[in-house]
Write a structure and sequence with these properties.
heterodimer, A: alpha/beta, 2-enoyl-CoA Hydratase, Chain A, domain 1, seven-stranded mixed β-sheet, two-stranded antiparallel ribbon, 36% helix, B: alpha/beta, eight-stranded mixed β-sheet, binds zinc ion, carboxyl- or carbamoyltransferase activity (chain B), ClpP/crotonase-like_dom_sf (chain B), lipid metabolism (chain B)
Amino acid sequence: MSSNWFKRVKEGITTSTKEKKETPEGLWHKCDKCKTVYTLQEIQKLYWVCDRCSHHGRIGSEEYFQILFDDGKYKELDAKLTSGDPLDFEDTKKYTDRVKATIKSTGLYDAIRTAAGKLDGHDFVIACMDFDFIGGSLGSVMGEKIARAIDHAIKINAPFMIISKSGGARMMEAGFSLMQMAKVSGKLGQLSEAKLPYISLLTHPTTGGVTASFAMLGDLNIAEPEALIGFAGPRVVKETIGRDLPDGFQTSEFVLEHGFLDYIVHRGELRDKVALSLKLFRS
Amino acid sequence: MTTYLDFEEPIRELEEQIANTKEIGENTGVDMADKVGELEKKLVATTKEIFSGLSPWQRVQLSRHPDRPYTLAYIKAIAGDTFQEIHGDRGVKDDKAMVGGFGLLDGETVMFIGQQKGVNTKMRQYRNFGMPNPEGYRKALRLMKLAEKFNKPIVTFIDTPGAFPGLEAEERGQGEAIARNIYEMMRLKVPVICIIIGEGASGGALGIGVGDKVVMLENTWYSVISPESCSSILWRSWEYKERAADALKLTSSDMKKNGLVDDVIPEPINGAHRNHEAIFETVKKHISKYLKDLKKVDPDKRIDNRIKKFSKMGVWK
Ligand SMILES: [Zn+2]
């Protein structure tokens, strides 16, 4: 594995708030799978992939931008777009309060960030979800930011990538949330007409409306190892069939085997593999 | 046998009284016309009162009313004997929860497609409760492409509690199947009309729901999740389905108000389930009108309008 590559990665990455909170005093990180303990600095350098068991720990948009863009440099697009509350939605909490509190606790404005930069010297546009923001849920802001990012990619003639990490629709935007699936799909059609490649990277977890729309529509659908990928969540499927699910059900490896992914990529090789894919489209 | 929902109970009582009064009249030879007339007036007033004040949850109940017509009933009423059902996705199997085929409407060929629910216990199983598997969505897409090839407009009837969340559905790519349909429908060169005739649950509905005209019958619902599931996720209990139905703004009038559907097709005063002939007629008239309008638009322009319509949906700051 490309541990050399990891050493090239510059230090001082922003870690997502949730990870920080889970680490006692911000000093240690324990692998979720094999429980190996790392110093925060060590695991940051490994991009939260366990050296011992290869478990891919959760990271956010900032880390992916650092991995993929040349020198970690990028220009963020529509950074401060935030949710409206079209339905005046209230469950156990007001939607507006939930959004406000999440902005405060995560330092993010919504569940996706979009950015333009370079990969191997070529223009590249990426939209990357943040699971910490209401489960990476798909609402109007995510739909609009992706749509605008696609417009930008078409304008600068650049390939486009979406990194998905989402529980699906944002219920508090109900019908508005649902229609984002159609909205983004329409935009992807325009990208396709411009003959620009679209790479969809599915990471843990990618389910619901995100899977049932743009995450499955890549010219290349690729995934990180052992990610949960599905339309219905495993609990719902289990209830439906009334028995336990087979081992490995709805993992990246399962989805690859059934023909819905092009390849699985270790995070350590993500940059090089994506760069090669884009070079092959280009050359 | 007619089924009455709890809030339809006063209607059932009045209908029973009217029937009894008529019977007494016939048996005794006493003229009961005045009494019957009075009761019938009361029935109209009561029906109006009940149906004008329906809560969102009551609309959801109506959308699932067992006496409501399902997709094939609409198609057969519209196209009659000219409807020729065609089957299969050419890959896995013929999904009985998704039906379709060509038929004539006012002498012109139309591709009809829709989710199909079963009319009795046995048929409900056979139709998988209107929950298609991936092959259902792929069958629908095959039919849409067939229509496009021969330049025939497409009408879809949406009535599903959701895409089937089964093991094989996941293996065969339920997510990909729905995604592909949404993507391809956005770019179909022929006019596409989508009508929610019952339940419009989430991606399972949207999988045949991208069109130039997306319209809802009055007593239907369309949203990203059912009120029951929403209740269980957001309130962590099944008890809040009424509140969830309110919060989701899933009724035809709310969806129209929010610009998420293009039109609402009115139902007979006592609901589509009580007067099939009337709703078939209304739906047919609406389809004819939409088709007439859409045919005037150049195909490229129509696609452009379709993409722009969905692009505008959303609220942000
Ligand atoms: Zn480990």
